[in-house]
User: What shape does this take?
Amino acid sequence: MPNAAYERFLSEAGPRSAAQSLWTAADGPLPALYLSHGAPPLLDDADWMRQLNAWALSMPKPRGILVVSAHWEAAPVAVTAPAAATPLVYDFHGFEERYYRMTYPSPDAGDLTRRVVAALPERVHEHPDRGLDHGAWVPLKAMYPLADVPVVQLSMPTLAAEPLLDVGRRLRALRDEGVLVVGSGFMTHGLPFLTREIIGGAVPEPAWSVDFDAWAADALRRNDLDALADFRTKAPGMPYAHPTVEHFSPLFVALGASSAGAERARSVIDGYWWGLSKRSFQVA
Assistant: This one.
């Protein structure tokens, strides 16, 4: 069948997700995450789906999920429509038709939306009909496949590091309420420089992707926020690793939402997909 990998995954992951304990105050604050979200074919990659699902199962099931995705830049800050089963945004092209029929009918997120809006001092535009883009729903279909957690997506008002760190800081308290704060991007995203040989695995991952990934992992280990913020000029592999920077920028929301910056960052997923680093981490 066309989507056999996801169907097989769901048959195993669905019962595990149903049995997952729901967050309580006794669990303490949830971590903040930065994840490499992949394109819709992630949902054909059994190993990557298992990695994402195992990550979700390693913590209590959140009472809400707030996602800042590479695929929504808007100022002033905006939030998605909160109604249950908000339609998805199929913000990609050139893929098989079945990806445009996928759904993720998450519950009503009205309460979560109000909490997010209250956490931000500036005016927040509450979008009447915008749904979740693939930076949110693709990884969530693997992490929380039952779509049983309210989800709100917040736009990125800028790609600059310091303002996004500040957005994360203002969202930090939500973690104490069982909300999972997620920055969704891709650790390297040099799509214009990929070849069929790289995508197909016939040749090694490109040096610009490997070098940038190693540099970012080291900067996170050293808690070097200044270096991370200055990645455009300090990171090897630039500008090939990020010819545009929107897939790296959500990292700063996650770091801002942490209690200790990058100091307690822990890589949970690494490796490569289509030659791109899928490194993903969490911070306490």
